[in-house]
Amino acid sequence: MNYSEVKINIYKKCSDWIDEKISITTKAVKDAQDSANNEEKSSAGDKYETGRAMSQNQRDMYARQLAECNKQKQLLLNIDSTKIQDRVSSGALVITDTANYFIAISAGVFVLEDKTYFAVSLETPIATLLHHKKVGDSFLLNGKNIKINTIV
Q1: How far apart are the C-alpha atoms of 134 and 87, rounded to whole Å?
Q2: Rounded Cα distance, 12 and 31, in Å
Q3: Per-residue pLDDT tens for 4-46?
Q4: Angle at CA 63, nearest 5°, toward 89 and 32?
Q5: What is the pTM of this model?
Q6: How many alpha carbons lie under 13 Å from residue 112 in its C-beta half-sphere?
Q7: 87: three-class secondary structure by DSSP
Q8: Per residue in 73-103, pLDDT tens?
Q9: Edge-to-edge strand list for the sheet holding 144-151
Q10: pLDDT tens across 115-151, in order?
Q11: What does DSSP say about strands 108-112 and 144-151: parallel, antiparallel, or unpaired?
């Protein structure tokens, strides 16, 4: 598999990852809302109000998480995974002499053909170090000089 194919595969894995996260978070929002709606009023009114407030707070927390997931999904949709890049920016697959990075969203680690790739957002410290660099450039990470070998 060449690096262009790797890039497309990692893009798909990131898309699947965020879609699953959106699905799980959407269900959590619904469950928290259902829980708030189903709180039964007991003779102890304070208990009812406290339980309902806790359910609403939980729903609001999941709603914020869902909004962030949708924002990440939109960032990913704005990437053309087939575009070959000459400088590191969003959508770039970066191969260094120590690690491999897909600059998109922070979706974790993926292994393809026994090689490890880190999916990171442009806001992460490593992506900040890589941003706008080109093949042959080096950067310092944890006191170690790292060279960029390939950008796709």
Answers
A1: 5
A2: 29
A3: 999 999 999 999 999 999 999 999 999 888 877 776 554 455 5
A4: 145
A5: 0.86
A6: 20
A7: strand
A8: 999 999 999 999 999 999 999 999 999 999 9
A9: 108-112, 115-121, 100-104, 93-96, 144-151, 138-141
A10: 999 999 999 999 999 999 999 999 999 999 999 999 9
A11: unpaired
Q: Long-range contacts for 82-89 (Cβ within 8 Å, ≥24 apart)?
A: 82/4, 82/8, 84/4, 84/152, 85/151, 85/152, 86/134, 86/135, 86/151, 87/132, 87/133, 87/134, 87/151, 88/127, 88/130, 88/131, 88/132, 88/133, 88/134, 88/148, 88/151, 89/122, 89/131, 89/132
Residue 110 CA to residue 124 CA, distance in Å, equals 17
Q: Which H or E element spans position 116?
A: strand 115-121
